[in-house]
Amino acid sequence: EGSGVAGHRASRLPRVTRKNTDIMGENKLFVGSLPTDISREDLQTVFSTYGEVRDIHVITGDRIRSQTGQACAFVMYDNRQACQTAIQALNGVYKIRETE
Prior knowledge:
The protein has helices at 40-47, 80-90; strands spanning 15-18, 27-34, 53-59, 71-77. Helix content is 19%, strand content 26%.
């Protein structure tokens, strides 16, 4: 259910994982199983709790290619500690929004 792979849409929890640090030292999280109408502002509100968010890239609409049809996003932090803190607090635990 909370894995972001199987289960009913209403029971899905966002999947938050850390992408490898690239050559420029980017600290990037992948956030999956999001509602299709999620906004940058929604994610900024949640993820800024854990550190300085540098950028958020939301993938929704026609760009969604997942089997579930749910949105996903990349959240970039200024440092690795913020990434780890967000993963520990949110992964498989926190619901961005209850679905109707």
